[in-house]
Structures are given as C-alpha cells and as structure tokens.
Amino acid sequence: MTDHFDVVIAGAGPAGAQCARDLAERDYDVLVLETENEDDFPRQSNKSTAGTFPSMMGAFGVPDDVVMNFTDSVVIESPNDHFAQTQPGAVLEFGDFKRFLVRDGREAGAEYRFDSRATAPITENGSVVGVRYNGDEEVRADVVVDATGPAAPLAKQLGVVDLERENQAIGIEWEMEGVEVDHPDYADLTDAMMLRLDHDLAPGGYSWIFHTGGDTAKVGLCYIQNEKYHSNKEGLSIDGFLEKWLDNDPRFADAEKIAGKQHRGSAHIQPPGSLSTDGFMAIGDTVPSIDPLWGEGIHKGMKSARAAAVTADRCLTGGTDTSAEEMAIYDELWHRDVAPDAGVRLLMTHLLYYAPNERYDRLMRDINTMDLDTLANVNNGSPRAIAKLLHREDLSLLRDFVRDDTEIVKVGLKDVIPFL
Questions:
Q1: What domains lie within the chain, and their CATH numbers?
Q2: What is the pTM of this model?
Q3: pLDDT in tens, 4-19
C-alpha cells in the first residue's frame, strides 16, 4: 500500500527542511525525501558560504551554536579600493545549520527518509499527487514541494522551471587558516564579510573572504558561465581562478587550506517563471530564490519555504483544494515577500558584471561619498538612487548593455514600470 502524507518535500536543504519544520509545527503529516545518506549528511550538499544576518536567525529561531563567527561589518573591494559599512552578520557552519533544521523538524513531527532520490512527479488528471523515488518507489501526497535546488527533477518535468545554463553561476570555496585578515595594504577584515569585484579573479562574478575567527576564513569565488560578461583568455577553470588569487594576494602568503573543507555549488541567476501548479510548488534554489546581486540564498530560501508552508496550510484547511488557482497563492507571496524587487535586482546584477574593472574603482569612490539612506535605496533597486551612481562616460556602456541584454532590461524595468 502506497504511503500518503499531507505534504511530501523533495530535498532537505534549508528551504526544504524549513518548510517541513513549519508544516510539522502546524500538525501536518510531512515527509522529506533526501538523496544523501543520513550518517554523512550534508557531505555532498554542504556547499554554502553561509553568510547571513540577524533578521534571518531571529525570524526562523536559528540558535547561536550553529554560528562559526558573528561579524560586524560588510566590505566591498574593487581592484584598487574598498567600501566598508557596519552591518551585523553571522557566518554559519552550514552543516550544523542544516542538521539543526532537520533535528528540529523531526522533533515537531516531520518524517525524513534519507537515501531517497526523488526522480519524478506522479500526476493524475493533470494534478500532482505524489513522488516517485529510488526508481520504482512511490509516495502520495496532497501537496508536493520540490526543494532539490538546481537539479529540480520534479519542477523541470512539470515545466514549472526552465533553468538555463547561460544563467548558471558556479562557485568554489575553501575554509583556510593562516589568513592575514588585517593586512596593511587592504581593508581590515576582522569580523567582516568581504566581497571583491575584480574580473581578473572572478570574471562575471565576485570573490570573497568571510572571517570565521582568529586567522581562519572562508575564501572562494563564483561567476556566471556566460561569455558576455568575461573573456577567459587564460583558459582557466574556476579552480584555476581561485589558485591565481591565492597565489597573488599577500593575505594568503602563509595561508593553508583546511583538509576536507572544500565546498562547491551552483545556482541560477535568472528570473523565475512559474512557481507552482496543481498540487505542486518549487522553493529555494529550485525556483531560483537566491538574491542575484549579492548571492545571499539562505534567507531568501527560508522565506520561500515559509510562503510555501502558508500556502499549503491554506489549501489543506477546511477541505482540500490544491488546484493551480489556489496554489498560486504561493506565487503571490513569493513576489510580495520573498523577492519583491527581483527584476530590478537582476538588472543591477547583470549591469554590474558587464562593467569593466576600472568602473569598479570609481563605484567604490562614489559609494564612499554617499549617505546611508541613499545606499540603502540603491541596494533596494531605487532608479533615482541608482542614477546617482551613473556618469556621462557610462552612456556607451549602457547602450551596449541594453543591446546585449534586452530581455534582462525588460524584466528589470517591469519592476519600475509594471505595464511594460
């Protein structure tokens, strides 16, 4: 006899585990299918830099004991300059964080099946009614949630997401010791999260140093695999770019990689299409929900999980109605609460990666002279605030960008001019 649950979730990452946690606390029968082996979890999926902010930890009840280091500033570097701003944050031990979410969800009543790879949705009369996993095993549910990240085996087969390779960002990171976080030639990165814009190191992306205490840090880089934003004349792999940085930056002169502490991952930097259909929702990196501008994915993923839990609760309360019309509540919540400015932030991201290195130095000079309110408005995608960062010599850059990225421009402008 096939098992039946109120909700089945594929994937035990932050989004999937948080969705299960929320629903279990509402007394729903929830099952999470996770590909990895429980004893090793999350060895294969321990991929996040895991920088986050107090707002996420407070909103989702995340305990301090999963934090490697509490930070008090954010630093942005260009090739020859930097900007620093006071901003409390936290660098999580990502594995501990994921295990906490699973443990807490289980204590609330969620069931987990590890070694269970979701492979296909089960549909009847056009509605999703369950999940096939591990080849021929099946489980039924009133609501199915895909939280598997870019793999998206359920969402792709249902046509809910269309993740394009040209929008895929790949990343690599090492945890390192012996890092000189307060080098005299650079900004002081003590208790800081630093992002560096430098095409020589991360073409079409950025690199980072997240201080994790003492002389240790998470060090890595990521970039979009799209030749419009860089020309890899050296023919380097992403590992090659990281080694180039480690070999040439004096902050790593005496640094060593910590054995077994390498992380790799990918995410898509693109606007979501649909987010749900009959009996089904996609959350977290499956959508994708990651903030395109600064790569913050944990808080966005957790918010998408909560929006999905709210939607499932509504659809299953007072009778079951999981029609596409009712499930579309999730789409509304996602665009309102998870990423209300997704289009314009995506436009800002692509324009940022399109700019040459020398433009990054001027950007640092400009933002160092701005007041905090204007900077906040820039980060929130205000066209008026962004205009203050533009100069006459940017006109040719903007013209070329509009020509090369017409669709991205249209998506971004819809946030500002909805009738376009």
A1: 3-50+94-163+272-338 (3.50.50.60), 51-92+164-269 (3.30.9.10), 342-416 (no CATH)
A2: 0.91
A3: 999 999 999 999 999 9
